[in-house]
Hints:
Blueprint lengths: L1 H30 L21 H7 L7 H7 E8 L2 E11 L9 E7 L1 H9 L6 E6 L5 E9 L3 E7 L21 E7 L6 E8 L5 E3 L10 E3 L5 E8 L5 E5 H10 L20 E2 L6 H9 L16 E2 L8 E3 L23 H8 L2 E8 L2 E12 L9 E5 L17 E6 L3 E11 L4 E6 L9 E2 L9 E7 L6 E11 L4 E4 L11 E5 L5 E4 L6 E4 L25 E2 L1
Parallel strand pairs: 17-22
Antiparallel strand pairs: 1-2, 1-4, 2-3, 3-6, 4-5, 5-6, 5-13, 7-8, 7-10, 8-9, 10-11, 11-12, 14-29, 15-24, 16-17, 16-19, 17-18, 18-21, 19-20, 20-21, 23-24, 23-26, 24-25, 25-28, 26-27
Amino acid sequence: MAVHVLCLVRKELLALRAIQDAEYERIFKLEHPDQVPSSIPFQEKEFGFPGSPDKALQALGVTKDITAHLSNIVVSLALFEGDKVLFACSGVAVPSGMACKLDLTRFVTSRRLVDEFNKNRNLDDKLRIDVCLPNNRHRDGFLGLYDERIAIVTSCNCEDYVCPVDLDLQAPRPSDGKIIAAARASESGRLMVTTGYLTVDGDASWAQITEAALGGPLIDHDGKFLGVNIHNYNAESPSFISLRVLRERLEHFQILNTETIDFRGYSLPPGVFSTVPSGFWRRIKRLKSNGYPMPPPLVLEFNGELLNTFEEEFGELRAWKDYPYKVTNPDSWEYVWGLLPRDVVTNISRSVVKLASFNGSVRSFACTGLIIKWPGTEGMRPVILTSASLVRGPDGHSDIDKNLTIHVFLPPGQHSKGTLIYYHLGINLAIVSLDKGIHGIRPVDLCRKEDLFEPVVAIGRQIEEGFLMATKGEVRCVLRSDYGLSTCKINKLWGYQQLLVENVGSHSSSELADTVDEAFQVSDSDNAEGSSFSALADSDDGYKNSHWQ
């Protein structure tokens, strides 16, 4: 029997995975309708005078020894899928701004690298950036922020091999208009240079140049940094961004900011975008559909963590009957479910549900609810007592959002849409009706008042699979006739609606609090099995406070 159930569960998981993969493929095609991989392999074209950089610069008429300085600011940035080169250009090392525990170096390059990255992206999502440093050393690069002209690539452990350009050293326009473009070849690591002129209208004209020069520096014959090549309109006349404008854009990107960025309130500056990191496209889609804030640049690549999520667990987990796998919470050593009488556990499993509200296809909120009989009525369909945060507006403190749809789940497989029928924002409670019946439930009848001074258990539904969660505590005090404090420790997401049950199974209350001392509201309650329940509530401070670190 157990083997048969296990096989069925595995088949269901494989079927669910196939459905998810098909949905991801559909979304990807909608976002990338013209995604057709090129059958022509990329061939990097070198340019400039052959031989060593010293001789090349001398041939261009440079009398000063600027080779070492120029070489230290230029890198190659190559886009790979596996071992296949898809595109290559250059980059210029820029100051990193704020202090960081990691040894990070940032390179500014042309927006063209982002276009090639997006053009070649596929569902396998295995693109990578290779940074070729001076002396042909190689590092991994991370493509991050960009705008309509420039993009930023970040790499680690490069500071001993490159030297950021001095953005404060403003060089005058060369009187004779002579300038030099530099780039680094991806395959050979060779520093390439070519000569050109600044025209009267500020454009650049070159003797010879290729795509490899995109993102590379412009310098004068004294080696002073003038700007960065950013786009090839044609081979002879690429556009460039001047040093002054480059500094303004990097300040706007917050690249030069010396203060630590607060991820809680982070948002991209106007006109600035962030590349979805390779390997994280599916995760980003899940985060968006679950209504979470998008990670700031580099947070995913460096194993950043999203805190205060709906999926966080507390206490001891309990799966439903016939679930074939053992479920545990690695963050908890509590033993709770074995202390409760079997009939109480059965009642709980049939009266505690999980709820989620959605704005279109994006989840707005998720919490636990308690199926109750409507007080003072006979034969009425049961309703759900839950948190009003489920239906609050986007800022968490305004009135309800009437555009939200509510879904109710009773694991393992029952689901119904719900309709908000009553709410009270002051005590953060809501009543939701079921649009269709759910079988095998044990609605709680709120009718009898009990004193809550026994050891208690806080119970909730895990949001992903719907396992029950339980943690022990005590009622510390009753503040008023209808409010009290328990010591049950639940997760850090405020706004959960939990169930408070005495260890002996005789009393319980529904709770939505978040600190060590859990606030709850007491009301008259009793159910048909002899275990009493009551409603509780707390303020909704901290509503939707998920953030990255």
